[in-house]
Amino acid sequence: MRIKICGMKDENNILDVAKLNPEFMGFIFYKNSPRYFNGNIPELPEHIKKIGVFVDATFDYIKGIVSKHNLQGAQLHGNESPKLCKQLQDLNCAVIKVFFIKDTFDFKSLEPYEDVCDYYLFDTKGKQPGGNGYTFNWDILKKYPSSKPFFLSGGIGLNEIEKLKDFKNTEVSKYCHVIDVNSKFEIEAGLKNKIELKKFKNEL
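Below the sequence we write its predicted structure tokens.
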């Protein structure tokens, strides 16, 4: 399973975590987030894809950030329209559209986005648009109607290793492209615990 480490903020911490060779690293460009990224991303190995996280941002804002930081993807955590997703795809930028799940989910809400994004991301529905620190009921994904690859997110930490191994044995897991981790590996908001991340990656 590929790993995305999201909510990176401190330059030295970014470089330390990059040594673990995650496939993706996420940077949050949402000013209300405690993990808001307002610096310069240090040079990273080419195989680590840089993903910008946005919440109801304009096309021009996203386009500017993608260009400034040479991002390979835009992760959309708000009520972004299919039209905006299509515009971003035309930038040659991978589009990850986020949907929130708690106890139930209407998969029909995916239909307008099926042709205008590259990945879905399923996160836990909570007070914040991400980083809430707890998982949702993954059994809901057994009814996943699409073949589009998705990111699995929401409160995933070391305690979820066995649960993830069980999930890998389900039919829907073949569409699970990335395991997305964030708040469960933090020393403080935006500062990741490299030792715990290494343990997670090795055990997974």
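Strands lie at 2-5, 24-28, 49-54, 73-76, 94-101, 119-124, 150-152, 176-181, 186-188, 191-192.
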